[in-house]
Every structure is written in structure tokens, then in C-alpha cells.
Write a structure and sequence with these properties.
The protein has about 280 residues and is an alpha/beta fold. The chain has a single domain, classed as P-loop containing nucleotide triphosphate hydrolases (Rossmann fold), CATH 3.40.50.300. Helix 2 packs antiparallel against helix 3 and helix 5 packs across helix 11. The longest helix has 15 residues. The radius of gyration is 19 Å and the shape is globular.
Length: about 280
């Protein structure tokens, strides 16, 4: 017989960080724990922004909807969206959470945020591979580039402050040096794929949750409909076995060198964040 978990008894945590850096893999692993719910990017973050946009200064409703009412409305979005999820612990995924930590921790003081990271050059390499794997698709991710552009224009677009990589990178940097950094854990993709059992043990310690024995040879997750509408089929499909793939980069050397310099989390000075990282991977690895 099923039972309903009340919103007051449900623990919320958050998955954020860089794209193509293991958030889908992490969610697939966490889903094996029967107490946990996790998935790819949810609409809750966007819904929160939309609601606040309708109620903040400049809106006709701003004078009649006080801050406490706005807070209650935003909190209600979480309860409503996850009302049918019978799990004690919910991980909501959105790369924008790192830029919204004051709100996150006001709503959920006990929450933890896991940010998945990766050498930014390899993030760009991953996007470029997906673009080249679909030569007959003008993906929405590169809209505005005409006939798909070149590797240089595609990478430059992704790095802009309001695009997939640039927006996530700046949000992560804000969180890393912000006042809530002690509740932030950065998990490096390379280390997660090389030593998943060790990394997940540290993740459970960070969350304060009892350890769970995961099956790293049978991790399943896919979101084909979401990927198709982006014009990038396979973007969120996992291979069953967690393992590190050895390959050469397809980026030109100058691009790889440029974006390899952006891993600010390699130096934790000035930050209270928790970091699980691996040694840098060369472009010929």
C-alpha cells in the first residue's frame, strides 16, 4: 500500500553546475536509492522566476502582494510540482539554482546543493561532438548562427553570459564565492566516472544520508522527447555502465587551451565550498 509523503516531511536538495558535466549521470545513480527522486532539468526554477517576475517592482500586482505572500507562492510551486512523488528526498535539477541560493536557503535552510563540474574545454568538446553527430539538424542551441556556423562561432556562442555554458559558469562562480558556499559541493565529472563508488560515498557524507550500495554497471536514464525538441538526440541518454572514456579532443588547440583556463574551482582559496576534483585531463587523453 502506497503512502503520501507530506511536504513538511520531504527533504529538498538541488543539483546544479555546468552542462555536459554529469548532472544526468548523478541523477541516474541517485535514482537507484528507493528513498530518492532525481531527474534532469525541471521547470520549477523557471516557474519561480516567472511568478516573481509577475509580482516584483514594476508589476501592477507588486503593491498588493507582499514579500511573505511571494515566498509562500514560490514554496507552493515545489509542493505542487512534486505532489505525486512518494519519495522522502527530492533532488531538483536546474543550472540556475547556483544564482538563486539566497532564495533556495531561505525556503529550505537544510538543503544542500551539488554542482557538477568539468574542465570547460571538455564541456565545449562535448557540445561540439553532439553538433557534428547531427549534421542534418539546425539545433535550437545554435539559433542565430545561420547555417550552423563554425566550431569557433558555436563555442563562442555557448560561452556568452546568457547561453548554456556561460550562464551556468557565472552562476557557479557566484555560488562558489558566495555566503552559502559551505552548503555547496562541487563534483568533478572525470572523478565521478573514474571512481564512482568513492565519489558517491563522499556525496552521501555531504548530504548526511545513510550510505547506499549503488550498481554502477546498470545506471539508466534517457529523455529522448526533450532531446528531440532541442534538436540534439541522445543529449541526455546514459550508457548503462559508469566508466571513464578515453578520447582526443576535436576542438582546435587554441580553443581547447583557452577554455581550459576557466576551472576556477581548482583553487579553493577564498571559498568555503566543498570540492571533489580529479587531476586535469590533457587534450590528447
Amino acid at each position: 500500500m502506497s503512502h503520501t509523503i507530506s511536504s513538511s516531511n520531504r527533504q529538498f536538495h538541488f543539483i546544479s553546475g555546468l552542462p555536459r558535466s554529469g548532472s544526468t549521470l548523478l541523477s541516474g545513480i541517485l535514482l537507484q536509492n528507493p528513498r530518492f527522486h532525481a531527474g534532469m532539468t525541471s521547470p520549477v526554477g523557471a516557474l519561480c522566476s516567472a511568478v516573481l517576475g509577475q509580482l516584483s517592482a514594476g508589476s501592477e500586482f507588486s503593491p498588493v502582494v507582499a514579500s511573505d505572500k511571494r515566498r509562500a507562492l514560490v514554496r507552493g510551486l515545489f509542493d505542487s510540482y512534486y505532489a505525486d512523488i512518494d519519495k522522502e528526498v527530492v533532488f531538483d535539477t536546474n543550472r540556475a539554482w547556483c544564482a538563486k541560493l539566497p532564495m533556495v536557503f531561505d525556503l529550505f535552510p537544510q538543503a544542500k546543493v551539488i554542482a557538477c563540474v568539468r574542465n570547460v574545454a571538455w564541456v565545449m568538446d562535448s557540445f561540439e561532438r553532439m553538433a557534428r553527430a547531427n549534421p542534418y539538424e539546425h539545433t535550437r542551441m545554435f539559433s542565430g548562427l545561420g547555417a550552423r556556423g563554425t566550431v569557433y562561432s558555436r563555442v563562442e556562442l555557448l560561452a556568452q553570459h546568457d547561453q548554456a555554458v556561460g550562464s551556468a559558469w557565472t552562476a557557479l562562480r557566484e555560488a562558489f564565492y558566495g555566503e552559502h558556499a559551505k552548503s555547496l559541493l562541487l563534483v568533478d565529472y572525470d572523478l565521478l566516472t573514474r571512481a564512482p563508488a568513492r565519489v558517491m560515498s563522499l556525496v552521501y557524507d555531504f548530504l548526511g544520508e545513510p550510505h547506499f550500495e549503488h550498481d554502477f554497471d546498470n545506471v539508466e536514464y534517457s529523455a529522448e522527447e526533450f532531446d528531440q525538441q532541442l534538436g540534439m538526440p541522445g543529449l541526455h541518454t546514459l550508457k548503462a555502465q559508469v566508466r571513464h572514456s578515453v578520447r582526443r579532443t576535436i576542438l582546435p588547440p587554441d580553443l581547447f587551451d583557452k577554455y581550459s583556463q576557466m576551472s576556477f574551482w581548482a583553487d579553493a582559496a577564498g571559498s568555503a565550498a566543498n570540492v571533489i576534483t580529479a587531476q586535469p585531463v590533457s587534450p590528447t587523453a
